[in-house]
Design a protein that fits this description.
Number of helices: 7
Distance between the termini: 70 Å
Shape: globular
């Protein structure tokens, strides 16, 4: 199977995730989806449908609800207790709490972003990694539900452990700047996290990097090529587990959970269609009523 093979639960839940993204983005995203959220009426021409859609109003109650929940959860600043700052561990965790993802986000801001993701689509993921070239410290990367393509849980030495996680990174590899210094080109890639077991030895954590090739295979699909294999070490030894954490509304298991705002999203889209029908009726019946009056 190719590296971008998706889990059956991913395929089953992807439409709901994308619908939630569209609704939370707002009216422009919902209307640009066209008949996906607002079906065309019988015998409507293209121009009539465009006018029908333009008259409708989408009030984003879902986004307001999500913002309200996040505000309630973080109405008080989270309390973070770190080890003694004078110790090596305290210094390392202080740097991590100040900049958790090496993009400038403190740990509290990162936690808020994770909560927002869980409220939005009911799922997110965090990969703990190590930067060993310049800063030499730990950091964490956030992955959206749509970018966690595949996963596998197995029983290893009496414990249920992740043995496979496949992560899609649309901007994973930054290409060198071309002739235009303002142009930044990126290459999409897939990061495969594996727990490799060799006979009875302790399993080790292996990272594979796959990039999309230029050649096309059958049915016009692109080919993914393995470009790098890494074995992260700690104290000179491979890690015995995959440092990836799933985030959900009710648990931290790989199992996909129900969207917390799923019912609100359904009602929100129903109000959008109802508003379109109401205003279409007003638009159609208004001139006739005035003529009769």
């Amino acid at each position: 199977m190719p590296a971008n093979t998706t889990h059956p639960d991913y395929d089953a839940n992807l439409p709901a995730w994308l619908r939630a993204r569209d609704v939370l983005t707002g009216e422009d995203s919902v209307k640009s989806a066209g008949e996906k959220y607002l079906p065309r009426l019988d015998d409507q021409t293209d121009d009539e449908y465009l006018n029908y859609r333009a008259r409708a109003s989408f009030f984003n109650a879902t986004a307001r609800t999500a913002e309200g929940y996040v505000g309630l959860l973080f109405r008080r600043p989270p309390f973070i207790k770190l080890p003694d700052p004078s110790s090596a561990l305290g210094k390392a965790l202080a740097a991590f709490a100040h900049d958790a993802d090496m993009l400038g986000a403190p740990l509290t801001s990162y936690a808020k972003a994770i909560v927002s993701e869980v409220l939005t689509v009911g799922r997110a993921g965090s990969l703990v990694d190590w930067e060993g070239e310049s800063e030499r410290r730990v950091y964490v990367s956030r992955y959206a539900a749509e970018n966690i393509l595949n996963w596998r849980m197995e029983r290893v030495r009496g414990r249920n452990l992740l043995t496979l996680v496949v992560l899609y990174e649309p901007n994973g590899c930054v290409a060198e700047t071309g002739a235009d210094e303002f142009e930044v080109r990126t290459h999409e890639q897939i990061r495969v996290l594996k727990l490799v077991r060799e006979s009875e030895a302790q399993p080790k954590y292996v990272v594979e990097i796959w990039q999309r090739g230029q050649a096309k295979v059958k049915r016009g699909k692109a080919q993914w090529n393995l470009v790098d294999v890494r074995v992260p070490l700690r104290l000179g030894k491979p890690l015995p587990l995959i440092p990836f954490v799933f985030h959900g509304p009710r648990h931290s298991l790989p199992d996909v959970d129900k969207l917390p705002l799923g019912d609100v999203i359904t009602v929100n889209l129903d109000h959008y269609r109802l508003d379109a029908d109401y205003k279409h009726g007003m638009h159609s019946a208004g001139p006739r009523f005035l003529d009769q009056w």
